[in-house]
């Protein structure tokens, strides 16, 4: 299922399903970013709330903002203000039926990994792993990638990161799934566990020690999640100290194509990638090819 492509003048909801904003400057910047895209920002009622010091309001408030946006026919996109922590806490409160009735663009990354994959798995809607409105850089490359993914019904085509490295060669096709490693691991064993079967699995993380990355990858090995994947597309391991040796040790024997250091994650410039869309990974050429549109024409 595809959302309609966003068009200039469309209303986009700015919501905070995870952590709180730190200042009005971040909030105002997010609205400016949306306007620069030619879209009209609509802010959630609780977008500036704070609970427990690390949540953007109570679970009920954060879920209400998201569900209000889902149910409002005038809103055509939902952009996360930031990541942080908390999206897992509201997965049971999301109105998945309303999303299926009126599919719209849902965008975010980091902690939003839980919500993006839950929406895709529960409804079949393609969601978008990409920048958050308040904190991402929105460089020329990042903005171009976002526009291509959510404002054009043309396929994204061939993507290649200049610094990408091959961990294991080969070619594989599958739907894109995953995102932040910490969230993928945390969802394991829950009703919202990310389905990696025959998937091209995105992996990235930030501010985690190498042994913690090792532990989470080992958890996914023991659960069978990594063995079920068709290929792995690792992005940035920002402030994680992840070495090629670690990736080869934990991933190299899976027998599937694997690349790392692609434009995904907590980095200055990242792609916007459609979760749930089919793609082809050529690990030797270090390319990701998407030959189908991510949104539908209006």
CATH class of the largest domain: Alpha Beta
Rg is 18 Å
The helix tally amounts to 9
Structural class: alpha/beta
Q: Looking at the structure, what is the overall shape?
A: globular
Brief digest:
This protein is an alpha/beta fold and 298 residues long.
Could you explain the architecture of this structure?
This protein has 298 residues and is of the alpha/beta class. It folds into 2 domains: 11-150, 3-Layer(aba) Sandwich (Rossmann fold), CATH 3.40.50.10740; 157-290, Glucose Oxidase, domain 1. Helix content is 29%, strand content 23%. It has helices at 24-36, 59-71, 96-101, 113-123, 140-150, 181-187, 210-223, 225-228, 244-251, and strands spanning 11-15, 40-43, 75-80, 105-108, 127-129, 157-159, 165-168, 171-180, 199-206, 231-238, 258-260, 273-275, 278-282, 287-290. The chain has an 8-stranded mixed β-sheet with strand order 6-14-13-8-9-10-11-7. Helix 6 links the parallel strand 8 (171-180) and strand 9. Helix 6 crosses helix 7. The mean pLDDT is 97.
